[in-house]
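User: I'm writing a tutorial on reading structure tokens. Could you give me a worked example: one chain, its sequence, then its tokens, then a sentence or two explaining what the tokens reveal?
Assistant: Sure. Here is the example chain.
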Amino acid sequence: MLVLGIDPGLATTGYGLVEGDGQALEAVAYGVLRTPAKTPIAERLVVLHDALTALLDRYNPDVVAMEELFFSTNARTAMVVGEARGVLLLTVAQAGLAICEYTPLQIKQAITGYGQADKRQVQEMVRLLLSLNEIPRPDDAADGLAVSICHHHSSRLSRLLAQADEERE
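And here are its predicted structure tokens:
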């Protein structure tokens, strides 16, 4: 299964494509989608839509996983990121792909086993889980990979639980 993980943002959206069965995982591609600063938000949203559409067309993932927003202080930042996230969700829906959403806590638990792990711990585990020589850069790309790995682990667990239920019946 090829999963596209997305860490949404207006200026920089991180993405990571991970192929695997939930256990053996391989990074296919990762990076960021950038929008030009000092450009009207509407134009930046179009850039984001077009860049994600191109990414979906190029890699044809089976499913998309996206980080849910969590902001506790800056409402303006939350609103702008929410607008970008909305465009990303719409783009995925228009492509006819399933989308799964995960909180930062769920992602950290799936990657490190600890929901309060810091960014560096998550990045190092992403590197280890994908057998990479270095931590993926920029940070947003590593976050996109983490979201993808989280979905792989979550869907593998769901499959195992369903299989156990079938065996009990």
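What the tokens reveal: The mean pLDDT is 91. Residues 139-168 form the longest helix (30 residues).
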